[in-house]
Amino acid sequence: MFSAWRRWGWGVQGGLSALLLCVLPSVRAEPVRPLLMLVENSALMPQARIEGDRVVEGLHLDLGQALARRLGRELVARPVPRKRLAEALQRGEGDLLCDYQSDWLPGAFAWSRPFLPDQALLVSAATAPAPAGLAALAGQPVGTVRGYVYPEVADALRAAFIRDDAPDAVANLQKLELGRIKHALTGRRVLEYQQRIGRFRLALHTPLVVSEVMAQCALSPSSPVGLAALNAAIQGLVSDGELSRLLARYR
Q1: How many domains does the chain have?
Q2: pLDDT digits (tens, 9 = 90+) for 28-56
Q3: In terms of CB atoms within 10 Å, which of 65, 66, 155, 176 comes out highest?
């Protein structure tokens, strides 16, 4: 009788084990979707270097990877034409776009706290008189980038603001170095990076700071990442010094 009870008991246990083995695979957690970061496909270093449909290096990639890690996700960086950035973010083709400000990108996006510093500079060749201020540029050609707005300069000079457009920020500095213009508007990040890698060696007057910029990240309405979580990740980057270390790579 005892041996029969033992056989029955083991049979019940075996049946329960088999049942558990059947049930357990059905409750596996689904993998977390990667964080999709949009990057302007015409971006240049130090912002980004793009090969085909891949972002291979640069500040945007470093920043995206750091944020994704803090959000517990992998990063996928996706190049998109500048004119399609707002549409792509609105349609959920990406989760976020960084190094922008809310007045630069129309759309129903949630915006992170400002955290990414840069300066808009007026740089002048040392062979030209150093401008005392923006008013000194009235009627003179100033190197600019096609498609970009310079509100402080436009407000100061109005009709006397003579733009000399280049296709991108590096070409703008090259025109200055070749002597085609005496003054140019640029970002400090771009200027310092081009000087560091030895591609811009022109002697300059001390740059005139036109404006201070604290850029943000725009979050798609359909992103699974919440704004509070994104801001917490940004706060971590800032407070533990990781953001400063990322920026220092390109100075």
Answers
A1: 2
A2: 656 789 999 999 999 999 999 999 999 99
A3: 176
7 within a domain of the structure (yes/no):
no
Say yes or no: 94 and 205 in one domain: no
3-state SS track over 26-83: HHCCCCCCCEEEEEECCCCCCCCEEECCEEEECHHHHHHHHHHHHCCCCEEEEEECHH
Within this chain, do residues 160 and 132 fall inside the same structural domain, yes or no?
Answer: yes
How far is Cα 56 from Cα 50, in angstroms, rounded to an integer? 6
Nearest to 184 by CA among 201, 160, 208: 208
pTM over 0.70: yes
Q: Which residue range is the domain that position 235 belongs to?
A: 35-116+214-248
CB 220 within 8 Å of CB 105: no
Residue 207 shares a structural domain with residue 126 = yes
- Identify any residues that bridge with 75 across adjacent strands, giving them in sequence order: 35
Q: Which two three-digit tokens encode residue 78?
A: 């996706």
